[in-house]
Amino acid sequence: SRIQSQEADENWLARLRNTVSEVDFSLLVSGGHLETTVEQLSKLSEGDILSFDPPEMAEVTVNGFPLYEAQVGIKGSKVAIKIEDNILEREG
Predict the structure, then answer these.
(1) Where are the beta strands (DSSP E) in 1-92?
(2) What's the total number of domains in the chain?
């Protein structure tokens, strides 16, 4: 019957959501950029340290798809981000 079919569809959708919610993925946070010359780049070697000031805001992406704008800061001894804007909601 139609009610059983609708219940089956709802159960399938619930299982799909549950499965998808457990998928692991990586977030990429754009933490700034450095400008250099080819000469400086060619002189870099293992152990060299490049320092820079982190941006106030960074874009958070998954697979190159922008999701959030985040404030960059420090929490304890770690660099951290605070989500400030949901790009998906903003672009609707």
Answers:
(1) 28-29, 57-62, 65-75, 78-86
(2) 1
Q: What pLDDT is attached to residue 88?
A: 82
Within 10 Å of residue 2's Cβ, how many Cβ atoms? 6
Does the residue 19 lie in any domain? no
Reported as half-sphere exposure (CB side, CA atoms, 13 A), residue 25 has a value of 12
Q: At residue 53, does pLDDT exceed 90?
A: no
Phi then psi for residue 86, to 5 deg, are: -95, 110
What value does the mean pLDDT of the chain take?
Answer: 87
The amino acid present at 15, given as its one-letter code, is R
Mean pLDDT over 8-34 rounds to 84
Amino acid at 69: E
Query: For position 25, what pLDDT does the model report?
Result: 84
**Domain CATH for 62:** 2.30.330.10
Note the pTM of the prediction, 2 decimals. 0.60
Length of the chain: 92
67 falls within a domain: yes
